[in-house]
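Study this one:
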Amino acid sequence: SMIFCQRTNRSPAKMMRIAKTIMTRTTSIKKWLRLGLISGLFVFIIAFSFFQTKSLKRGAIISIENIADGAVFNTAVVALSGTAIHATHLTINGREIPVNQESRFTDELVLSPGYNIITVSGSDKFKKSKTLVYRVLYDEPSTEMAEATAALPRN
């Protein structure tokens, strides 16, 4: 170190101060990097948590695949199927319907002649609920049409 000090024309004390300054700056940079990484990780955890709980905040997500509001049916029995995501409790016209592990359900309804209201309700574990209402019409075939169909020859 004496040889280096002679070449730079600096005293050993001055060289020690320079070394200490460099080490202090390096330590300061390490502290800022560590603080930045910890802050970034904290922000990531908060954002990830928000993203993961976003769908839970909405409650149950219910969709029916084979019925539409205003539909007209010519048969009394209607098969319903769909999905109920996040639903822990599902009812169709007040009747409890089971939901499988894939969040799917199926049910059959018997329509009355004329105007019918089908109400599908579901709630999640936080008691947030969603209700879908379908107004459908069962157009009962006429008696003459049923007799004419029955009179057709069968093969």
User: Anything to note?
Assistant: Residues 75 and 81 are 17 Å apart (CA to CA). The longest strand covers residues 114-123.
